[in-house]
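Protein modeling request. Please complete all fields; requests missing the sequence field cannot be processed.
Requester role: graduate student
Desired output: 3D structure, token encoding
Chains: 1
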Amino acid sequence: MTEPNRSGKERGLILAVETSCDETSVAIVENGRHVLANMVSSQVDTHKRYGGVVPEIASRQHVESITLMLDEAVSTAGIRLSDLSAIAVTQGPGLVGSLLVGVVAAKALAAALRLPLIGVHHIAGHIYANAIVHELEYPLMALVVSGGHTELVHVEAPGRFRIIGQTRDDAAGEAYDKVARAMGLPYPGGPHVDRLAQQAEPGEGTPMPRAWLEADSYDFSFSGLKSAVLAALNSAKMRGDMIHPVRLSRGFQDSVVDVLVEKSLRAAKEFGARQLLLAGGVAANRGLRDALTARCEAEGLPLLVPPLSLCTDNAAMIAAAAYLKWERGQFTPLSMKAEPLLSLEAWSV
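Delivered output (349 residues):
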């Protein structure tokens, strides 16, 4: 393979592409932290009518948007393509059709500009979104909560990941959306459930079970909680009663948050974490943020949370994670494929 162009190496200027699900995003980030542009085109309005993401529609919209997003990112950043140091892209996990659009675009750009290509793990991006706004101290523990992922990740050194707990069924975000749908709330349901839950006082929520699993387990399970909500709704309907949505939302959210917070703090203590990081789309949930903040303050453990703009899928976080590999000269061949089941631990630097 021809030696890539090293122009702009001193700046570490990375153009990143993110198309893992239903956001088309292109960012340009300097040295893994200084965001020059972070353009995001959301497809939420398109998928609302279906009550969830339709993979074929998502990939088609990525095709329609990707070139425009690339142009806007370069224009907003005020750079020339010749200034770039590398091209990064989400390699996985995600919807394979969506991933392919970003991968093909990134590979074409890297080949045309003779720049290094860096395939990035989507969850590594969510974790390193925090590095854009915070100084990370290792070892650290990351709680990743999104529509498709609920994981506890031990990060013992920069870019070295070990998953110590993960969901056995529904991810937290999936459970939120399914419960919201059962309650007749719009898609995406998570923010609506969170908003309703905030309207109830502590202790006013409909009682719901907590899935702690085995005593020493850091895994999660939310399918039973989702079923408990559906059973409560169906039982009330059969009796001709109505469960108040505010109380039901509060009960559901209290159950999810209690388990996430308790297991995260226990894991941080056991593994000697110097910081606890919150990452992923559900990191925008106010109930979870408030509960984690209170517990971490009580335990004297620093809690790092990215701004709302970096919680949901975006390319700036992909550039931040790619910088770990760029610093080490760990580039990805142009034969790279989209990998919807890419392993985070295997991706570690």
